[in-house]
Amino acid sequence: MAAPLWVQIGTSFVQHYYNVFDTNRSQLGMLYFDQSFLSWEGETFQGKKAIIDKLTSLPFGKIEHVITAQDHHPTLDSSILSMVVGQLRADDDNVMGFHQCFILKNINNTWICTNEMFRLAIHNFS
Q1: Is the pLDDT of residue 125 over 70?
Q2: Is this model's pTM higher than 0.85 or not?
Q3: CA dist., res. 55 & res. 52, Å (int)
Q4: Class of residue 97 by CB neighbours under 10 A (exposed 0-12, middle 13-18, buried 19+)
Q5: Bridge partners of 40?
Q6: 8 contacts 2 by C-beta, under 8 angstroms
Q7: Contact 80, 9 (CB under 8 A)
Q8: Distances from the Cα of 18 to the Cαs of 11, 14, 27, 116, 125, in angstroms?
Q9: Is the pLDDT of residue 126 over 60?
């Protein structure tokens, strides 16, 4: 049995997002619009330009994401809520866990990210 449509769309979006992020994150602009929001480690950015400026200013040259798990739910307004858990390696740093959440909305027959939140899975055990 095929996965529900929202799972197919969410899974395709996640695969595309991390492929572009890992190869040329300056090209992620096509996934946002001017009312999109990004929270990155507690800092908030609004609008395509501000989001892409943040993502392209991150202090690493290369990055690789490995997705551990992803979940996708339809919302009451026909959007899709996607939650991603995974690991990343930036440059030659140690592997770190991360959590990322997206809200996807179909605008003019294109799925775009209206809201996104990112956090590294760093624990303070002291």
Answers
A1: no
A2: yes
A3: 5
A4: middle
A5: 43, 118
A6: yes
A7: yes
A8: 11, 6, 11, 13, 30
A9: no
